[in-house]
Automatic annotation (TrEMBL):
Name of this protein: PCGF1
Coiled-coil positions: none
Annotated compartments: Nucleus
Zinc in keyword set: yes
InterPro entries, alphabetized: RAWUL, Znf_RING, Znf_RING/FYVE/PHD, Znf_RING_CS
Length: 211
């Protein structure tokens, strides 16, 4: 018979105590980007005045600084790309000054929403058109699903049709944030981030409904 292992409560406490209120978790809520957990009421109240994880303040800025120091230590600080006179762009050079946004710590990102190609459905009953005003500036925390909602409204899309949003020929997941998109697909490219929209392929929409 295996011997029962005894665990002292002080060894478990760090995993079940909220660092904001110093009490045990009530309705535990985890931040998806860093996986730190807090009481739901505590983190909601905290995020009303700050948009950074309580355990990782200034993480994004520190990462930029470490990256710059890494390149400088290897003599790559002024490396040019394809003969371009500009140095490698950092995220902070593309987003706008966050102080101008109503959320104090929110970064801003510029998007260009382009039609993927002329498409029609139902024998031409609906024609997907290019947007007259295709440039958008928004928070970097916005999700792809929210971009789709904006497109539906601007395009007056019928309720029985759906859209795909693409970046560099890759269809984007609705739960992806624009910050994730930028870091994965657009980190070393010029602003704005170019996104394409198209009518969802019928077989694709059917597969998603079945899954």
């Amino acid at each position: 018979m295996e011997e029962m292992m005894k665990i002292r409560i002080r060894h478990v406490n760090p995993h079940i105590v909220c660092s904001l209120c110093a009490g045990y978790f009530i309705d535990a809520t985890t931040i998806t980007e860093c996986l730190h957990t807090f009481c739901k009421s505590c983190i909601v109240k905290y995020l009303q005045s700050s948009k950074c994880c309580p355990h990782l303040p200034g993480l994004f800025e520190n990462e930029e600084k470490r990256r710059e120091e890494f390149y400088n230590s290897r003599g790559l600080g002024n490396e040019k790309k394809d003969g371009d006179e500009k140095t490698l762009l950092k995220p902070s050079t593309i987003v706008n000054n966050p102080e101008g946004h109503k959320y104090k710590y929110d970064e801003q990102i510029c998007l260009c929403l382009e039609r993927y190609g002329p498409q029609c459905v139902q024998n031409g009953s609906y024609q997907l058109r290019p947007l007259e005003k295709k440039f958008v500036r928004c928070s970097i925390r916005v999700l792809v699903s929210q971009v789709k909602s904006l497109l539906r409204k601007k395009l007056s899309l019928p309720s029985d049709l759906d859209l795909d949003v693409l970046c560099q020929e890759e269809r984007l997941l609705e739960e992806m944030s624009l910050k994730q998109l930028f870091l994965m697909h657009w980190y070393d490219k010029d602003s704005p981030v170019v996104l394409f929209y198209r009518l969802k392929q019928p077989e694709l929409a059917q597969n998603e409904q079945l899954s």
